[in-house]
Amino acid sequence: MEKTTEIIRGNGDGVTYEFPVLRIAGSAPDAPKAYIQAALHSDELPGVVAIDALMPKLRKAETEGRVRGSLTIVPRANPVGRAQQFFGAAQGRYHLGSRTNFNRDFPLINRPDAGLLPGDDKPLNADDRLKARLLKLSLGHEIVLDLHCDDEGLPYLYIQSDLWPAMADCAASMGVEAVVLWSGESGASFDEAALCPYLKLPAAEAQLARRVVTTVEYRGILDVEQHFAEADAEGIYRLLVARGVIEDKAVETPTEFKGEVVPIDHIDMMPAPAAGAILYDVKPGDRVKAGQRLATIVAAPGEEGGRVEVLAPQDGFILTRRATRATRAGDDLVKLAGVARSADARSGALEQ
What we know:
The chain is of the alpha+beta class. Strand 5 and strand 6 (89-90) form a beta hairpin. The chain contains 7 helices and 22 strands. It has helices spanning 46-63, 79-82, 126-138, 168-174, 190-199, 203-206, 226-242, and strands at 2-9, 16-24, 34-38, 71-74, 85-86, 89-90, 94-95, 100-101, 143-150, 152-153, 156-160, 178-182, 212-220, 260-263, 267-268, 276-280, 287-288, 293-298, 307-311, 316-321, 326-327, 334-338. It folds into 2 domains: 2-258, Aminopeptidase (3-Layer(aba) Sandwich), CATH 3.40.630.10; 265-338, CATH 2.40.50.100. The strands form 5 sheets. A 9-stranded mixed sheet has the order 1-2-4-3-9-13-11-12-14, with helices on both faces.
């Protein structure tokens, strides 16, 4: 294994950021290559500990000569966000200087050519330099995993619809409970930018059936537990075996995905009708019926009529819910995966 350090120049004199990159060389030039990163939203740690649990398995495979395809691994992909600490709390979702989500506005290029990406000589904000660098690191890899987590939720994947159902074996191997299929634009998120260079290539060159590009949502932000990390590492390892990056005859790789597959336009985000405290009636994984109460907002404590109920607009199941129990009016409370198209259907990105 080789470790290198990437340096990102900051916005001011004397300010730099750095993050490590781990590489394992493969023995078979024709084997697919894999790129795995975690904590693009720097305070999301389930993917970080999953990579930590994965690395001993990969080092063992390397020692035993079973690594066929090269791997590039970035355990903590966002040193810029990690430096944003205010009053003891991490601010890892948005770059405070540009007010932009760290997982939006990646460069979209129409072929896998690193020369099309902006270099360090360009007058960019640090977050934009970081995005260009991460995308450059991912180019040339058939498998690209971007490990995230939700507030509180089931483990699930976002998959661009052009890659489904060819990626069903990957969802099965990773042990997730749901897949959300999206199409169109996704705010130039990392997964959109990683797949974009191949979508306009001739089919024989793009080889979409060979590609695995996905945002992985590992449950909730507080689910940083050893047993989850081990299970998620096993899932990634099975995927790598299933797709021929790692050789391991002792590993069973399922091909049939038995979880839920939901088009993104079936997701109801359920905005809060009032500000207040949230009392949930449901948790991730629960099945619900149209009209069922999902939550109560205590908007005016102790007052007559001070509670406001939130009802399910359709049948479905709860994919995620908010981790905090205070809400403003209009804040999204849950992702309800419905049986039909949402009245507030969104095509690419569910959240900003």
